[in-house]
Amino acid sequence: MLQALEGSQAVAQAVALCRPQVIAAYPITPQTHIVENISKLVADGKLPCEFISVESEFSAASVVLGAAVAGSRSYTATASQGLLLMTEVLFNIAGMRVPIVMTCANRAVSSPLSIWNDQQDSMSVRDAGWIQLYCADNQEAVDTTIQAYRIAERTELPVMVCMDGFNLTHTLEGIDIPTQKQVDKYLPPYQFSRTLDPRNPLTLGTCVSPDFYTEARHSQHQALLKSQAEIIAADQEWQAISGRKAGGLLTVEGPEQARVAILAIGSVIGTLQTALETIPPPQPVKLIKLRAFRPFPIDALKEACQNLDDVIVLERAISPGIGGIVGIEVLAALSELPNPPRVHNFAAGLGGRDIRLEILPRLLSVLSDPGDRRFRIIDVDLEKLPVEDR
Amino acid sequence: MIEIRIHGRGGQGNVVAAYLTAMAAFEEGRYGQAFPNFGAERRGAPVMAFVRINNNPIKQRNQVLAPAFLIIQDQALLHVPGVTDGLLPGGKILVNSNLSSAVLSSQEGKDIISIPAGTLAKQILGRPVPNTALLSAFFTLTGILSQESLAKVLKQRFKDAVLEKNLQLIEQAAQQVPAGLWKVSEQQEESHVTSP
User: Do the two domains A2-242 and A250-389 of this chain adopt the same fold?
Assistant: First the structure.
């Protein structure tokens, strides 16, 4: 049913519809209203589920890991420093191939201390072995949360649903919450092939000698690559039930004949869509919405970009010392094309800086100035810095 | 598209006011979007929240920089730098104040309507929380959304005594301002430029 809801509240309802059995979360900042709303559902007796308030995110991740291998559909949510504190367990969860769903309400990372939005947190754990799906709006966050369980349990890979903190989590808008019947039809009861059971003893996460570690890593890498098909299928199957798609691996919109595309990730997509309508660019421009960052959809991206001259990548995190994160991966993927487009890479909106409509002409201005193609933080105000730091 | 910016102090229900407005738009079959200017929440600190109302889906998520309306929950904020920035030409300001609209308008040189929302709220709710009274006055002045929708969303948000008192409060607040004084025509609604 279509309702006016805050993003966090909507995701809490989506999680509840997936009938989780164990939820563990650290209840203090940088936590969101998501687990607060879920804990209320549990306390009010509306969601039969074990809710475990833990003393740190490290414990939250550890509890859901244990719960999932013991046979329970599990959930947790975090952001920012909380995600970093989980890091060690994130690698363990992925290495053990345990199907857990977690929401990352994307926020900046200290220092300097910031509670505001960017995507540095999830980008920093991109190598942990989790599937990472980024949501452009709250409807996608709801639909992706439900799809995430299906993807996770089919692939035995953990899924991180990334939604921009505040920009989505704290925004109230009309959101269609599916019915329990729809979700039940889509999502079978939890099953895990290696559930711990004393009658059939096995171990997970054991010590592996050099004889097998390489093969374990190879198999994990292959599993991530193959999960692309499941991500696409999960979206199509959800569309058959709900009538909505959440964006597959990536989506392309805009004029067919465009030779220029802007590729972005997360909630800035909506602002770019409005900008394209209200500040019509001099040339046709496509918009590429990257939803899957892990696995990185190399083939889909090559197909989307094969007839382009320029791809402008806008991202909300940086890798200090080189520049962009998404941009470098796009550059690498497109280098396989016979006539690869030029890739221009910018970051903006770090630590909660508002990304305005006027970013569109600023991004496109790079096309008329092909000289300096190095990565830049496009909304930096150099005047605020001492000359030697500019 | 109508863009509104709400200024207040932490604890005055700024985010709730923004959410209630977007919820009321939703009740009337329109599109609404509301979000706070996120800060480290603490009571008394200047805070703001944004609302967009539109007849079509709202995609952009940038802050409201060029509002048609400002709702200011504390008169002292009128002099805080940035508070009135970006108000569109012909834009209107609704202020919680015990000073008259005429006095405030001439003091500030702007189109201001005031209502003693805090005083009214203190009388009826027992706490000087001005947000629902201001919304009632705002809906009455502009006709953008109806009192019925406001009552409806209050019923979704509050219950029991708090709800009853708020319903009483919005009824009284609505009588404090001339209905339709800031009426927005459909044409104006369509033509409003959005925040850059």
Answer: yes
Residues from chain A contacting residue B38 (CB–CB below 8 Å): 115-117, 166, 170, 352
Q: Report yes or no: B32 and B53 within 8 Å, Cβ to Cβ.
A: yes
CA nearest to B28 within chain A: A4
Q: Would you list the domain boundaries of chain A?
A: 2-242, 250-389
CB contact under 8 A, B34 and A172: yes
List chain B residues with CB under 8 Å of A167.
Answer: 35, 61
- CB-based contact, A4 to chain B, within 8 Å: yes
- Residue B8's nearest CA partner among B42, B36, B46 is B46
Distance CA B131, CA B20 (A): 10
Can you read off the two tokens belonging to residue A260?
Answer: 């220029």
Report the distance separating Cα B191 and Cα B185, nearest Å.
10
Residue of chain B minimizing CA distance to A272 = B60
Residue B144 DSSP class: S
Question: Taking CB atoms and an 8 Å limit, are B33 and A171 in contact across chains?
Answer: yes
Nearest CA in chain A to B191: A278
End-to-end CA distance of chain B: 13
Dist. CA B6–CA B15, nearest whole Å: 8
> Beta-carbon neighbour count of residue A39 at 10 Å?
18
Residue-wise pLDDT tens for chain A (390 aa)? Answer: 899 999 999 999 999 999 999 999 999 988 999 999 999 999 999 999 999 999 999 999 999 999 999 999 999 999 999 999 999 999 999 999 999 999 999 999 999 999 999 999 999 999 999 999 999 999 999 999 999 999 999 999 999 999 999 999 999 999 999 999 999 999 999 999 999 999 999 999 999 999 999 999 999 999 999 999 999 999 999 999 999 999 999 999 999 999 999 999 999 999 999 999 999 999 999 999 999 999 999 999 999 999 999 999 999 999 999 999 999 999 999 999 999 999 999 999 999 999 999 999 999 999 988 677 789 999 999 999 999 999
Q: Taking CB atoms and an 8 Å cutoff, what residues of chain A touch B28?
A: none
Q: What are the domain boundaries of chain B?
A: 2-191
Q: Which CATH architecture has domain A250-389?
A: 3-Layer(aba) Sandwich (3.40)
The tokens 């092939």 sit on which residue? A193
CATH code, B2-191: 3.40.920.10
Using an 8 Å CB-CB cutoff, list chain A residues near B32. 4, 172-174
Query: pTM of the predicted model, to two decimals?
Result: 0.97
What lies within 8 Å, CB to CB, of B123 at 6+ separation is none
Check: CATH 3.40.50.970 for A2-242?
yes
DSSP A323: B
User: Between A170, A278, A357, which is nearest B36 by CB?
Assistant: A170
Are the Cβ atoms of A274 and B194 closer than 8 angstroms?
yes
